[in-house]
Write a structure and sequence with these properties.
The protein is of the alpha+beta class. Helices cover 17% and strands 26% of the residues. It is built from 9 helices and 24 strands. The strands form 4 sheets. Strands 9, 10, 11, 12, 13, 15, 17, 18, 19, 20, 21, 22, 23 and 24 form a 14-stranded mixed sheet that branches. Strands 3, 4, 6, 7 and 8 form a 5-stranded antiparallel sheet that branches. Helix 3 runs parallel beside helix 5, helix 4 packs parallel to helix 6 and helix 7 packs parallel to helix 8. The longest helix has 15 residues. It binds fe (iii) ion (FE) and calcium ion (CA). The site of calcium ion has 6 residues, from loops.
């Protein structure tokens, strides 16, 4: 089946959704001075329970709202209270006591038909983050949600549930992004991603960067500064997340659709691997504590389910999320369990990288993923992960030791695994490299005539690296040297896809500039991946 009868019509949602996000959130926020803003026809229980302390006197919803991890009957709703986001103690200007937060979820943007509501308590231990798993929802449905504390009402978020298991649902609009260095550029790409009103957003890591102000400078110069020192303490991670989350474009992207997130390296420390930190020359005796701080702040700031709540320096982030039987998203963690980079990291010609004992996923995650392949009934099996999957040879024959090329055994076991399991449409999604790439994955990269066994789409950065530059793919030496790689562009942007039972349509979206606030967006290249035919069919622009 191609259309599910229980989907609410997209036509109404398309129009209405423009009213929240960046501009709309401000409008609702401005109207939030009284409970009346919770909407006509809605009666909310009084909040001021005895002993709840003095009411807040400043809007705590500066970080917006988010949702994530949709399944057919539930979704995570998120907010974090921070009247003063940049407060150095990481508590966002909240008084150090527990606070009761009211939430509600409706089928309409005016909250005339509220289908779920409840109260949760948050406080200093949780960094004033709120995670609600709203359950008992209809499959394939659009919902609106908001929060309230005292007299303050949050902006409205829009979210969706996945189609029912066993159904294909309607076309899925999924966009994905990575690498948003706040100092390197404005988050205009997030604004355009939101304006497309996708059903689902994937973020593949480097959501924020750890550096102190002006120490990682883009070739175009930095346009704004990080607050705080290099993130190491929990307070420092919390403060930096708040700085990013207060950005209006990022808030709009979170408010428009549910997200599936995985972290890469900069959420902790550049190029960390397992329990190994970046630079041996600057010893970090407390790296495991730092990692625990980073994981806790990550969980607090992302719309994740309780199952991903970290236990000290361990966090179960890899998981599979099904969008009916149209697509399964296998969200991977290629940092936490990997062996240290071979040959001292960097770009190397490195025999050790071929050692089959080396792993980028860890044994458990690998077995889990191979098992997923064997039991999959999805039309599209999508790997949401961090680092470059396809072989990529430099002019000297070197490979990136931080990417799957530095872990050849893993690269082969995973791709051979999906071939052996006859996975119908394997697609790998990637971030990390601040450049758009599109590749055909090969059974044997050394043999140009070998089978195409899958497709990889790599998204450029949202802002990291500054404006970047366009180039002519037909003259790109990287593409000539690696004939399985079909496209590359080094501007900033994101990737937009539309997934149906028959095809995945892919638009590589780029911005002319991120160093000015209103960069123009365009589609630099489009490809179609056909059902049962891995590889890239170029589409006319
Ligand atoms: Fe990055
Ligand atoms: Ca990275």
């Amino acid at each position: 089946m191609t259309e599910s009868s229980d989907s609410n019509p997209r036509t109404t949602t398309r129009r209405s959704a423009l009213r929240y996000g960046a501009a709309g959130a401000a409008a609702i926020g401005a109207a939030s001075a009284g409970a009346a803003a919770m909407g006509a026809g809605t009666t909310l229980p009084a909040l001021a329970a005895p002993g709840a302390g003095r009411p807040l006197t400043q809007d705590p919803f500066t970080l917006g709202v988010a949702s994530g991890e949709p399944d057919a009957g539930s979704v995570v709703l998120w907010t974090r209270l921070a009247p003063r986001p940049l407060a150095e103690d990481g508590f966002g200007g909240m008084p150090r006591r527990n606070v009761e937060v009211l939430w509600e979820l409706a089928t309409d943007e005016r909250f005339a038909v509220v289908v779920r509501r409840g109260r949760v308590t948050t406080g200093p231990d949780a960094g004033f983050a709120v995670h609600v798993e709203a359950a008992g929802l209809q499959p394939g449905w659009e919902y609106f949600y908001r929060f309230r504390v005292g007299q303050y009402v949050s902006p409205t978020g829009r979210t969706r549930t996945a189609p029912a298991l066993g159904t294909l649902g309607s076309a899925l609009a999924m966009s994905f992004a990575s690498c948003s260095q706040f100092e390197h550029g404005y988050f205009t790409a997030y604004r355009h991603l939101a304006a497309d009103e996708p059903d689902l957003v994937l973020h593949l890591g480097d959501y924020l960067y750890e550096y102190p102000a002006n120490t990682y400078v883009s070739p175009d110069g930095n346009v704004r500064d990080h607050v705080g020192p290099e993130m190491e303490s929990l307070a420092e991670y919390r403060q930096r997340y708040a700085q990013y989350r207060a950005d209006a474009d990022l808030r709009a992207a979170h408010a428009v659709a549910p997200w599936l997130v995985v972290m890469d390296d900069h959420e902790v420390d550049n190029n960390w691997a397992g329990d190994v930190y970046e630079k041996p020359e600057y010893p970090q005796p407390d790296f495991i504590q730092r990692r625990a701080n980073a994981f806790k702040a990550y969980y607090e700031n992302m719309p994740l389910r309780t199952r991903s709540k970290p236990d000290g320096s361990a966090m179960r982030l890899y998981r599979a999320v099904s969008w009916g039987s149209l697509a399964t998203f296998h969200m991977l963690d290629t940092r936490q369990y990997r062996d240290d980079q071979a040959c001292d990291d960097g770009w190397k010609v490195c025999e050790d990288a071929k050692d089959p004992a080396r792993t980028i996923t860890g044994d458990e995650q690998e077995a889990w993923l191979l098992d997923n392949f064997r039991s999959s009934t999805a039309r599209w099996d999508v790997l949401g992960q961090q680092v470059f999957f396809a072989r990529r040879n430099s002019a000297s024959g070197a490979n990136s030791m931080d990417a799957w090329d530095g872990y050849r055994g893993s690269q082969e076991r995973i791709s051979e695994g999906w071939v052996a399991a006859s996975v119908r449409n394997p697609v790998v999604l990637t971030g990390d490299v601040h450049t758009h790439w599109a590749s055909e994955l090969k059974a044997n990269y050394a043999d140009p005539d070998s089978d195409v066994i899958g497709t990889e789409l790599v998204t450029t950065s949202i802002a990291s690296g500054g404006n970047g530059a366009d180039s002519d793919p037909s003259e790109d030496p990287d593409l000539q040297r690696n004939p399985h790689i079909k496209f590359r562009n080094a501007q900033r942007g994101y990737v937009r896809t539309r997934i149906t039972p028959d095809a995945m349509d892919v638009d590589f979206r780029v911005l002319d500039k991120v160093t000015e606030p209103n960069g123009k967006v365009s589609t630099r290249a489009s490809f179609r991946i056909h059902d049962r035919k891995p590889g890239l069919d170029p589409m006319a622009g």
